[in-house]
Structures are given as C-alpha cells and as structure tokens.
Specification:
Layout: H1 20-26, H2 29-45, H3 52-76, H4 78-81, H5 99-120, H6 123-144, H7 151-155, H8 157-160, H9 162-171, H10 176-198, H11 201-207, H12 212-215, H13 218-237, H14 239-242, H15 247-269, H16 273-312
C-alpha cells in the first residue's frame, strides 16, 4: 500500500480511532451533496414513479456509495494527500484516522450501499452503483490518477454516473435522457478541475500527480479548457431536443453555456500574473453554478406540474 511508509503522521493516529466528524469527512460531504442532487434529478426526470420511501432509500444508497468511494480514495491517496496543501489536513495524513480503519470503513459502506439498493429498489441500479465504485476506486484512483495526463477526463465518468443511477432506480434501464445527463457532467468535469489545477499545479507537481498543467503546461491546459467548454455548452442544450428539458431549461442552458465559454476564453487569453489566477478561479466557481443551474431547472420543470396540480386541488 502506498500509505504505510510514506506518511509518518499516521503513526500518531489515536488508538481509539477518529471522531464521527473525522469519518464523515472521509465521505467528502461536499461532493456527496452534488451526488445526491444529481441523482435526485435523475430520479425525478425518469418516466414512472417510485414509492417515496424507496426513493429515499435509493438516494441514501447512492450517497453512501459515493461516500464509500471517497473514503477508499483517501485511503489509497493518503501519501500524496500529505504532500499537497489542499489535502494535507484530511483525516488520514493528519493522523486522525488510521489507514486500515478508513479501508474497512470504505469497504463496508460500499458493500452495504450496493446490497441494500439491490434488495430494496433495483438490481440494475445497484449494478450501476457497483460499477461506479469500482471505476472510481480501482480504475481512476489506483490506476489512472498517477499514470496518465488524461486522469480527470477518463476518471470523470465516475462523477457522471449518479443521475444515471437515479434514473435506473425508477426505470431499470438506460435511455438517451440518462445518457445525456451523464454526458453533460462528463464533459463539464475536465474544464472544472483543470481550472482549479491551473492554480494548484505546484501541489500536483510536488505529489507527482501527472495533471495536465504539470505535464503539458498551463497554456496547453487553457486550450483544453476552451475546447471542452466549446463542446460542453451545446451538449448542455440537447435535453431540449429530446424533451428532457423544456423552454426554460433551453434558455438557462444557452445563456449559462455562453457565459461558461466566455469565461473559458478569458482563461485562455489571460496567461500571466494575478489576472491569470483570477480568471481560472472565476471559471472554477462559475462551473459549480453552471452545473447546479442546469440540473436545478430540470428538477423545477419536472416538479412544477406537481405543484400546479396541488394548487388546483
């Protein structure tokens, strides 16, 4: 394992184990909140209905599965986490949780989330959740992240699965609509993370992670951010074509996509000094708003007829 000999701070972990807050931090709660939200949108957008209790169980299983993946990611990456300012205070490199405790925690939660989802809601959705966990932990964390400059591009698929899993929990199928939601997140991930990586390249270089700014340089990264943004923006409007999104979604997706591309152009143009740092930071922050907006509008459009019917009654 890469953590046992490379993180001296772990030797000082408490014998009583970490606190509840420490274990919760292992789940990457901010990422988990995005997983829950996009999975919910996938469920709401799916044709058909799921009993509210089963819907809650499905969301919890998806969230726990995502958190388990994060815990296993932190377990395996504790050595490089200790070398980066952004991650050095995580529970394992900080010595609050021992590596083996995080490993067992992640494995138990992974198995529990997959089995419970299979038994209570859908074997098909459970299989997708299992594939997501294995993909993120084994394919991305253990293989791609330290070996290829395309780590974020290929590994980003793991973060794009939640709406597809939520959709499958209702329909037991994969359709063009669930694939579209997957594709939007998949194309959004590289410019989102590369905008962050531009200002964190020193961290990644120190940890030996072959992120694009480290391997190919910041200018090549800016170009890739722009190219992905130019592809992502029109794809973000496609749900209108399939009927997944309505007029409101089309307006929001078009306008926010144009803003995203404009900010990407700004990142491409501003290559030195504080202006470069600010441009990358602004794109990173807006990228979070962009994705939240698209999925929020999908949710509102699907829920609005329900609210209208309740008001008529």
């Amino acid at each position: 394992m890469p953590v046992d000999s490379l993180i001296p701070a772990m030797a000082h972990a408490s014998q009583d184990g970490g606190s509840v807050a420490d274990y919760f931090e292992l789940l990457k709660p901010r990422v988990m909140s995005l997983v829950i939200f996009t999975a919910l949108v996938g469920m709401v957008c799916a044709p058909g209905q799921l009993h509210p209790v089963l819907a809650v169980i499905a969301l919890l299983c998806i969230a726990v599965g995502a958190g388990a993946s994060a815990a296993l990611n932190m377990w395996y990456d504790a050595d490089i986490d200790a070398l980066m300012a952004r991650t050095v205070r995580r529970p394992i490199p900080d010595g609050r949780i021992e590596p083996n405790e995080a490993l067992v925690f992640g494995l138990v939660l992974s198995a529990t989330s997959v089995v419970v989802l299979a038994v209570t809601v859908s074997w098909f959705a459970s299989a997708l959740l299992a594939v997501t966990i294995v993909y993120y932990v084994v394919f991305y964390t253990m293989w791609l992240k330290r070996r290829t400059v395309q780590n974020i591009v290929i590994g980003g698929a793991a973060g794009a699965f939640p709406p597809m899993i939520g959709y499958a929990a209702v329909t037991n199928s994969i359709t063009i609509d669930s694939v579209l939601m997957f594709t939007i997140i998949f194309l959004w991930t590289p410019p989102h993370f590369w905008a962050l990586a531009l200002n964190r390249s020193g961290d990644y270089a120190r940890a030996g992670v072959p992120m694009l700014p480290v391997v190919s340089g910041p200018d090549a990264t800016r170009l890739q951010i722009l190219l992905y943004s130019l592809v992502m923006a029109p794809v973000g409007v496609l749900p209108v074509v399939t009927g997944l999104g309505g007029i409101g979604y089309g307006v929001v997706a078009t306008l926010s996509g144009l803003v995203f591309v404009w900010l990407a152009v700004d990142v491409f143009r501003k290559r030195t000094g504080d202006a470069s740092v600010f441009a990358a930071r602004r794109l990173f922050r807006f990228s979070l708003i962009y994705l939240a907006l698209l999925f929020a509008v999908l949710l509102v459009e699907r829920m609005f007829p329900v609210f209208a019917a309740m008001m008529v009654r």
